[in-house]
Amino acid sequence: MSSRFTVLKARLHIADIDRGYYGDHVLTLAHHPSETDERVAMRLLAFILQASPQLALARGLTEEDEPDLWEKDAIGDIRLWVEVGLPDPKRIRKACTRAQSVLIYSYGGRAAHVWWETHRDKLEALQNLTVLEVPAQVSQALAALVQRTMTLNGTIQDDQIWIADDKTSVTVALDVRKAGARPQRS
User: Fold this and answer.
1) SS3 114
2) What CATH number was assigned to the domain covering residues 6-178?
3) Which of 80, 83, 135, 183 has its CA 20 to 30 A from that of 128?
4) Are 107 and 133 in contact (CB under 8 A)?
5) Smallest Cα–Cα separation from 147: which of 169, 165, 170, 172?
C-alpha cells in the first residue's frame, strides 16, 4: 500500500546579498504523511540558504541513498549534500565520502543538543561536514509559514537571515556546531 503525499507548492524569492545570489525558485514538495510542518520548513530554509541554479530537492525521506537537497555538477558528481534533522552518523560518514561538502541543519530543541553531544566525536573528524542547529523557537516560527501554496521571501545580508510571507517575518539565527569545508562554486 503506497503512502499518500500532500503536494505543496512554494514560490521562493531569494536575495542572498552576502553571496551575490538573487533568484526565484518554484518548488513542488511531496509532504510525506510522517513529516511535520517543522521538517518541511527546515527543507525550505536549507534551500533558501544554499540556493543555486543547480540545487535540487532530493528524496531524502523516502530514498536511503539520497539527501533532502543536493547540488550536482555537470557530470553528476555531488558538490553539496544537505540533510535536515538528526541523521544517523553512519549515513553522514557515507555522505561525506560521496559529496564534496555535507551540511546538516539540525533542529528539535533539546533533542538536537543531545544528538550533537552524543555523536560529536564521530562527526568532528569529518573534514567536509558542517553542522548548523536551528533553535526550536525559530524552527517552530518557520513551521507556521508552511501552507499548501506559499510564497516566501528569503533575505540574507551581513550574516542576518529573514524569511517572510505576506503577513509574518521570521529572523533566523543558526548555531554553528561544526564548520567544515564548503563546496567550490563554479
Assistant:
1) helix
2) 3.10.640.10
3) 135
4) yes
5) 165
Q: Global pTM?
A: 0.93
Kindly state the cell numbers that stand for 6: 500532500
User: Got the DSSP string for 34-87?
Assistant: T--HHHHHHHHHHHHHH--TTEEE--TTT-TT--SEEEE-TTS-EEEEEEES--
Q: CA angle, corner 100, sides to 12 and 158, nearest 5?
A: 45
Strands ordered across the beta sheet of 169-172 = 21-31, 6-16, 149-157, 160-164, 169-172
Three-state secondary structure call for residue 33: coil
pLDDT category at 186 given cuts 50, 70, 90 is very low
User: Among residues 42, 49, 44, which one has the least CA distance to residue 15?
Assistant: 49
The H or E element spanning position 126 is none
93 torsion bin: left (phi>0), alpha (psi -120 to 50), beta (else): alpha
Residue pLDDT, tens place only, 35-89: 899 999 999 999 999 999 999 998 765 667 889 999 999 999 999 999 999 999 9
Distances (CA, A) of 143 to 93, 174, 180: 29, 16, 27
H or E element that contains 142: helix 136-143
